[in-house]
Structures are given as C-alpha cells and as structure tokens.
Design a protein that fits this description.
Layout: H1 3-19, H2 24-43, H3 47-62, H4 68-86, H5 92-107, H6 112-133, H7 140-147, H8 153-169, H9 175-187, H10 191-207, H11 214-226, H12 230-237, H13 246-274
Helix pairs in contact: 1-2, 1-3, 2-3, 3-4, 3-5, 4-5, 5-6, 6-7, 7-8, 8-9, 9-10, 9-11, 10-11, 11-12, 11-13, 12-13
C-alpha cells in the first residue's frame, strides 16, 4: 500500500470512529475497519498514523462494556507509537498516550495490583510532563491526581497537595482537588490535617448553587469523626441528605454509633456515684 493510499484509508477510518458516536453497531463497524489499517501503518513505520489510530481505537473501546482488555492493548500501542515519534524523553503525544493507558488501567482495576500499574503509568506521564512543561506546568495537575491512585498513602498526599498548589497557581477550579487532598489525608490516617481542606471544599461547594455539596460535607464529617469529634461530624452530616448515597448513609451510622458510645462512657461515672 502506497503512503498516499495509507493516509487516505487511515483518515477515512479515523472519521468513521469519530462519527460512530453512541451507536454500538457503528462503533464496532468502525473498529473492524480501523484495526487492520494499524497493522499496515506499523509495517510502513508510519508512527504518526499508528498513534492517531491507536488513540482513537482506545477511546472507542472505552465505550464498550466488554472492551477493557482491547482498550488497554490499543492504549499500549499508542504509547509505543508515541515513543517512536518523540524518543525516550517523550512529548505531548507520549503524555496523551500514557494518560489513556492509565485511565484504561484504572477503569478496569479489580485489585491492588491493577491500581499499582495505573500508578506507575501516571508517574511516567508526570515525569514526561515535567520535562515538556516544567515542574509547574498546568497539565501536571490532573496527572498528579491520577498518580495518587494506587500510591502509598503518604505519597498520595504529597501528590495531591502538589496538585492543589498548581491548581491555585493556574487558577483552576479548586473543589475537585480539595476533595482529592482530603480523601488522601483521611486514607493516610491524617484526619486532623484533612479537616481544614475539607472545610474549604464545603465553603466552595456552598458558594456554587450548581455544585453537589454532599461529597464535601461527607468528607468533612468523616475527617471530624476520625479526629475524635463526633458531635461536629453529626452537625455536618445532618446538613445533607444521605439516603441516596450508601457511603454517606454508612458514615452517618458510624457517627451515631460513636455518639452513643460517648454518651455511654460519660454516663458510667454517674451510675457509679449513685451506687
């Protein structure tokens, strides 16, 4: 196949993948057309076409409930193609491919090993992004947050707080980053440290009528409870409905149980004196 012909069929396949939309039938038909073309592009060492097609195929399989393994395979092909294009140091294409591979690994994660694989992939993306955009580049924010998944708890806190610093510097929305910082600190058994971040998240959520404030309130309540402040945790959790969110409902049950335990422990000295 000549290069001109290869360009033509590759671009046609990319158009089909792009236009498939939500139709499973159209998407699978487009995948069937595109996959053999990648092999032809590899044979011709057309890494630009291999990258574009592999990325598009990884995205197409992301919408397929049975496509987890194929999604990871094509994301991996995209990484290899990007490395061939940009060298070992990598560049924007390498970052984009690693991001797709990491998301595919996260979405299909079934155990700690899968999460650790995603963590390793995102650390590679962070390393490349630091070389391309510098240590304070805006693209690092999302990569750092994703890299926290599967990381050791204290390292996850370091990654999330660094992402928060960059989000503030680049004037990015802070609420989702604050939630990640809070979650990481709670996971690292640093609930007391998490409280001020959770309070900031609640304040931001309450300022935006379109923002769902259940998660910020829930994380603040959890941080307060884990800090030994069940009374304050109860006040916070009572501000939001919990019935539609199992984790909030479970958290409220824990808070009420903790309050009951506190009440019992305080009543025992009185009962002893009465005897």
């Amino acid at each position: 196949m000549t290069n001109m012909r290869l360009d033509e069929v590759a671009h046609d396949a990319l158009s089909k993948l792009d236009l498939a939309g939500d139709s499973d039938e159209d998407r699978r038909a487009a995948i069937t057309v595109a996959e053999p073309i990648v092999l032809a592009a590899i044979a011709e060492t057309r890494w630009d076409l291999v990258f574009d097609l592999a990325v598009a195929l990884a995205d197409a399989y992301a919408d397929d409930s049975e496509g987890d393994s194929r999604r990871r395979e094509w994301a991996d092909v995209a990484v290899s193609a990007a490395r061939s294009l940009e060298g070992d140091d990598g560049g924007p294409s390498t970052i984009a491919a690693l991001d797709r591979l990491g998301r595919a690994q996260l979405d299909a994660a079934r155990d700690t090993t899968d999460l650790e694989s995603a963590h390793t992939t995102y650390l590679q993306a962070v390393e490349v992004a630091e070389r391309v955009y510098g240590p304070e580049g805006e693209p690092l924010i999302d990569l750092l947050l994703c890299a926290g998944t599967g990381a050791a708890p204290d390292f996850a806190v370091d990654l999330a707080t660094r992402a928060l610093d960059l989000a503030e510097q680049h004037e990015r929305p802070l609420l989702p980053v604050l939630l990640e910082v809070t979650s990481a600190m709670i996971e690292a058994e640093r609930a007391e440290d998490a409280v001020p971040y959770a309070m900031r998240a609640v304040e931001l959520a309450e300022q935006d009528e379109d923002e769902d404030d259940a998660a910020p309130h829930g994380l603040l309540a959890q941080a307060l409870l884990d800090s030994g402040r069940p009374v304050e945790a109860r006040e916070v959790i009572d501000r939001v409905p919990v019935d539609d969110e199992p984790w909030l409902s479970e958290l409220k049950t824990r808070i009420l149980a903790s309050l009951e335990q506190v009440t019992r422990s305080r009543s025992r000295p009185l009962e002893t004196r009465r005897r």
